[in-house]
């Protein structure tokens, strides 16, 4: 059986405002090419739309659970866009559980999911999916090119981290993770802790750098961050 790679694709890449159809097609074309050697378990984030709907829900009723549910529905919409772009090579629907996803990968090259439960992010979903399907590595694909010591948009002294341990990532995420519905951070602390227990290596790359995405899938050096050990 071909090795399984888990991808966590940021929603803002696919839908920065309006759906970026050309980008989605390019990403799908790359994955279809790589599927000659790999199978893919894919989780899509909600991006800006998830945050918009989470904020809107909280204005209607101040309930984090309901805000999470609204955000999760945005992830499903993004997942369907990727699913459609993969044509007949993917499992025909979004799995309702990690067990269903694992079963689907036995006879399909791709399985695509959105979010699952209120209170956890699609980062956490991706790690749980990777554990369930026995993934070789996780590739986090976002609009950030790597993990930094701080926010490079706000901190001119922020430095790119080329390689770090899972425990170091846990410590970094603990500072960034507010656990609020629709909030955005590099990789939430629960996902990081699950990553540390699993021992699965993780690669963080920019989704706009498709060459780095391909290298990360293959486990080759790239322009992003590798989390291992």
Structure, explained:
- It is a single chain.
- With 229 residues, the protein is an alpha/beta fold.
- It has a single domain (4-227), classed as Acetylglutamate kinase-like (Carbamate kinase, 3-Layer(aba) Sandwich).
- It contains 9 helices and 9 strands.
- The protein has helices at 11-14, 21-34, 47-60, 64-85, 98-105, 122-133, 166-176, 189-198, 210-218; strands at 4-9, 39-44, 110-113, 137-142, 147-148, 160-161, 163-164, 201-206, 225-227.
- A 7-stranded mixed beta sheet has the order 3-2-1-4-8-9-7, sandwiched between helices. The chain has a two-stranded antiparallel ribbon with strand order 5-6.
- Helix 3 packs antiparallel against helix 4 (64-85) and helix 5 (98-105) packs across helix 6 (122-133).
- The longest helix has 22 residues, at 64-85.
Short description:
By secondary structure, the protein is α/β, with parallel strands linked by helices. It contains 9 helices and 9 strands.
């Amino acid at each position: 059986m071909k090795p399984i790679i888990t991808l966590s694709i940021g929603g803002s890449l696919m839908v920065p405002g309006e759906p970026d159809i050309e980008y989605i097609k390019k990403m799908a074309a790359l994955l279809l090419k790589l599927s000659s050697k790999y199978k893919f378990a894919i989780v899509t984030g909600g991006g800006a739309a998830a945050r918009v709907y989470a904020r809107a829900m909280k204005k209607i009723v101040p309930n984090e659970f309901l805000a999470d549910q609204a955000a999760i529905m945005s992830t499903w919409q993004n997942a369907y866009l990727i699913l459609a772009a993969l044509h007949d090579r993917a499992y025909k629907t979004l799995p309702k559980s990690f067990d269903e996803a694992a079963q689907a990968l036995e006879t399909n090259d791709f399985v695509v999911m959105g979010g699952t439960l209120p209170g956890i992010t699609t980062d956490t979903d991706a790690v749980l999916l990777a554990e369930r399907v026995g993934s070789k590595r996780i590739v986090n694909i976002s609009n950030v090119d790597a993990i930094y010591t701080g926010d490079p948009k706000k901190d001119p002294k922020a430095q790119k981290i080329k390689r770090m341990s899972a425990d170091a990532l846990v410590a970094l995420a603990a500072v960034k993770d507010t656990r609020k519905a629709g909030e955005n951070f590099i990789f939430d602390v629960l996902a990081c802790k699950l990553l540390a227990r699993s021992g699965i290596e993780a690669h963080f790359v920019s989704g706009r750098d498709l060459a780095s995405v391909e290298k990360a899938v293959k486990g080759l050096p790239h322009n992003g961050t590798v989390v291992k050990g």
